[in-house]
Amino acid sequence: MGRPSKPIISKELVVRAALEVLDDEGIEGLTVQLVARKLGVKAPSLYYHFKGKSEMLEEIARTIQVEAIIPNLRDQGNWRDQLIELAVAVRASILRHPKAAPLLLQFFPRHLMLKYYDFWVNRYDIPAERKILVIEGVEKLTYGSALIGAMSRVTGTTPMPEFDEAQYPHLAEAVKANPMSDDQAFVETLKVFLYAC
After folding, report:
1. Tell me, what's the pLDDT at 71?
2. Are residues 88 and 184 in the same domain?
3. Residue 131 CA to chain centroid, in angstroms?
4. Domain-located, residue 40
5. Most exposed of 67, 75, 117, 194 (fewest Cβ within 10 Å)?
6. What value does the mean pLDDT of the chain take?
7. What is the pLDDT of residues 88-113, one digit of tens each?
8. Same domain flag for 15 and 88
């Protein structure tokens, strides 16, 4: 019997199944065979949509990026506060799939964000030479925070490890003086950065 003229599964369905396998098994445990089994098809069926595992991983990274629940972008209002809302949404999307977060290091889908960069850069009321610094800074804060948070969730550890307060008294004082959650600390860090621009 020949190959069907239409695929029996969609690319989106494959990516969703692969993301579920990845959430359970991690990147090392993700195989084309496991994804196919989850979908109730044979592994070769997946090659209709992807040349191999690497292409599938790239699509998963893209999906995590675009599934962020983006707030309504407005042309007026405080762009700094709106940019913070956007960063919080992207970080939350990544943290929904902590075992997949490292994929964003390998397959960072920056090309998907060009229209957003252009939208935001036009809104920044700061000198032109500082605008790219805002893009770079917000991305690094967002993805760095998400990767550390993801590692913490995967390993079951806290982002700041236990330490001897007598050995590190200044750090202990700083930690005690800041009772914020990771989410709150992320927002406050963005505020400190953006309002200093």
Report:
1. 64
2. yes
3. 22
4. yes
5. 75
6. 89
7. 999 999 999 999 999 988 888 788 78
8. no
